[in-house]
Amino acid sequence: MKPIRLVIFDMDGLLFDTERPSFLAMKEVMKKQGYQFTIENYRQMIGLSGPKSNIVLQEIYGKDFQFHRISDDYNETFKRILESEGLAIKPGANELLDAIEQKGLKKCIASSSSRETIQQHLIKTGLESRFDFFVSGDEVEFGKPHPDIFIEACNRANEKPDSALVLEDSLNGLKAAYGANIKCIIVPDLIQPNEEMKQKAFSIVKDLSLVVSYIE
């Protein structure tokens, strides 16, 4: 295994516990629109860009469904839930960041979320200064599961894919890393590993602290 020089973090469900409040917000907003929205529906959207998520929703609710019509309501509801419950950092994240800094490795975030959302979450949790840079889903042509966002992260860090490591919680993120020829460790959140994840992941661990041994 070539030494790791760049660690690429996904954000939602990997670095922050945002998938559960996001699901609750979607469920509430969809109910107001007369739709039943289940956790299984939500799992299909995890790790996807906005346009890809809309395709999934159209497959479930019909071609006339347009997410942009409810996006403002969703964003406000999600914000309200986060303000009420707080934005939690996932277990082991700070321990892993400490280890990466001690090793002098580069680290960044590559998330399907908007640049504004990434910044807000980092500022809210006090982690803004702990990453060298971040790449948002609206900065690449094709979002996850396409590999573009991870290739862009390597380019910005001036590192080759075989010296990088991606940390993800979703199958779509894993597919993106796999397509970019970057090793990917899965830390499951709402999605438990299926056979494809077990085959394509470099490793599967229960929390971020267990990634430390892979960079030492």
Automatic annotation (TrEMBL):
<dbReference type="InterPro" id="IPR023198">
    <property type="entry name" value="PGP-like_dom2"/>
</dbReference>
<dbReference type="InterPro" id="IPR041492">
    <property type="entry name" value="HAD_2"/>
</dbReference>
<dbReference type="InterPro" id="IPR023214">
    <property type="entry name" value="HAD_sf"/>
</dbReference>
<protein>
    <submittedName>
        <fullName>Uncharacterized protein</fullName>
    </submittedName>
</protein>
<dbReference type="Pfam" id="PF13419">
    <property type="entry name" value="HAD_2"/>
</dbReference>
<dbReference type="InterPro" id="IPR036412">
    <property type="entry name" value="HAD-like_sf"/>
</dbReference>
<dbReference type="InterPro" id="IPR006439">
    <property type="entry name" value="HAD-SF_hydro_IA"/>
</dbReference>
